[in-house]
Write a structure and sequence with these properties.
Largest sheet: 5 strands, antiparallel
Strand order of the largest sheet: 3-2-8-7-6
Bound molecules: glutamine
Radius of gyration: 25 Å
Strand content: 15-25%
Length: about 425
């Protein structure tokens, strides 16, 4: 069978292709872009990639670089230090507004130029060159291939970067920028001139959606707390002065750039990139915004339209056959509070007919810390009630980190346990 997804993406391009808006012209190289280009790429967190239209056409990354540089600076400095230096409040202003928080002198967030300039300066590197290299190497790993800087685009933007230079000098004057303001604008302009395609951007966004692990190379590139911070700021500030409309209409953490790209990262699901150069008054691609509105509606991608995790966490329960039967609770999926609560509720309400009770985590692929604490407490209470508790957990998901089996009776499968004719011993930890 041929997958229907690429056909669906072509349909979306077709439906969202009406002309509107104008290509950015304040950067000479951007004014020369072909306004009719239109491409899309969707990459899932497990590495499937779907593309349609001009998905391999390259363009400069522009402001879509901001969340990734923010991620690198967060990884280098830590979330706490970054919070002291760059705010996390939506500014409600245009991307190039010359504004700093009057009380703290800090830029309001890392998605507007003022914050992005400061963020660029906070990436590790002893000088401007080293910072630029760190950014290019970092982006290349997010994309999964070696990216390059479009030097012509970079010098053409730098030659007329008076507004960004003004902002950098203001950051310096207010004492928040440590390095040379001209160096920072040059480095930031190079960062904005890194060349990417929709395919690259979809992989970069999918790395965020996949909590920091690249879906194809499987390299862990960012920690979960860093990704959470980046996605939160994308959600609240990524679409500048259209952030509220974006949240209600689309509900996907996103970032646009004046070259005409829009990226979105839907946690746990997909990275999306759309490219078409004509822009609206906020500086975001007109067709790009339309495509996101359409995808969000058609594919149920709004972040507030959440999965009913609790309903699917407990796959079922049964009593095994044989001489020494075991009551088995089978769990599945990503267990957080709501999921673990349904399991705990079922166990608490049960009137067990067997001495042995097993928690089967074979199909649990992620156990959030709250889920772990709740299940461990369940084990403890079942044991206090005089049950022998068995944990079926081939991946060792339940034992707390650093403790082999954490005093639990862990087996790879119920069959293995029955075949061994083993009787569960009391917990030792
Ligand atoms: N390089 C551009 C600038 O600083 C990026 C702006 C954008 O894409 N919104 O003006």
């Amino acid at each position: 069978m041929r997958s229907p997804i690429p056909d669906y993406l072509l349909e979306v391009l077709d439906a969202c292709g009406a002309d509107a808006g104008a290509v950015a012209d304040y950067i000479p190289e951007l004014a020369a872009a072909d306004p009719d280009r239109f491409g899309i790429c969707v990459a899932t967190v497990d590495g499937a990639v779907y593309a349609a239209g001009d998905a391999d056409v390259e363009f400069t990354i522009q402001s879509m670089s901001k969340p990734f540089t923010y991620a690198l600076a967060l990884a280098d400095r830590g979330v706490d230090e970054m919070d002291e230096r760059v705010g996390v409040e939506p500014s409600g202003e245009a991307f190039n507004e010359i504004s700093l928080d009057p009380e703290t002198g800090r830029p309001r967030n890392a998605m507007i130029n003022a914050g992005a300039l400061l963020t660029h300066s906070l990436v590790d590197g002893e000088d401007a060159d080293a910072r630029s290299q760190r950014v290019l190497a970092g982006f290349s790993r997010f994309a999964g291939r070696d990216l390059v800087v479009d030097e012509d685009a970079s010098s053409s933007e730098f030659a007329s970067a008076h507004r960004n230079l003004g902002m950098a000098h203001l950051l310096k004057a207010s004492g928040v920028l440590e390095c040379d303001p001209v160096d920072v604008v040059e480095g930031y302009t190079r960062q904005c001139s890194i060349t990417v395609s929709c395919r690259d951007l979809a992989m970069m966004a999918a790395t965020l959606a996949n909590a920091g692990t690249h879906p194809l190379t499987h390299e862990r590139l960012l920690s979960r707390p860093v990704v959470r911070q980046v996605m939160s700021v994308m959600m609240t500030c990524g679409m500048y002065d259209a952030a509220g409309d974006w949240m209600t209409d689309v509900g996907i953490p996103a970032k646009s750039g004046v070259s005409g790209g829009v990226i979105g990262a839907l946690p746990g699901q997909v990275g999306i990139a759309v490219f078409s150069p004509r822009l609206d008054t906020h500086g975001s691609s007109v067709r790009g915004v339309r495509v996101f509105e359409r995808l969000s509606g058609d594919m149920g991608m709004h972040l507030m339209d959440v999965a009913q995790e609790g309903r699917s966490a407990l796959r079922g329960s049964y009593v095994s056959e044989g001489e020494d039967p075991v009551t088995v609770y089978e769990m599945q999926g990503d267990l957080r509070f709501a999921g673990a609560e349904t399991v705990v509720r079922a166990i608490a309400a049960a009137d067990h007919s067997t001495t042995r009770v097993a928690l089967d985590l074979t199909r649990v692929y992620r156990l959030h810390d709250v889920g772990r604490r709740m299940l461990l407490e369940c084990v403890r209470r079942l044991e206090l009630d005089g049950r022998d508790v068995l944990v079926i957990d081939p991946e060792r998901t339940l034992p707390p980190a650093g403790s082999a089996d954490g005093g639990l009776h862990v087996v790879d499968s119920l069959d293995e346990f029955v075949a061994a004719g083993e009787a569960p011993g009391p917990a030792t930890g």
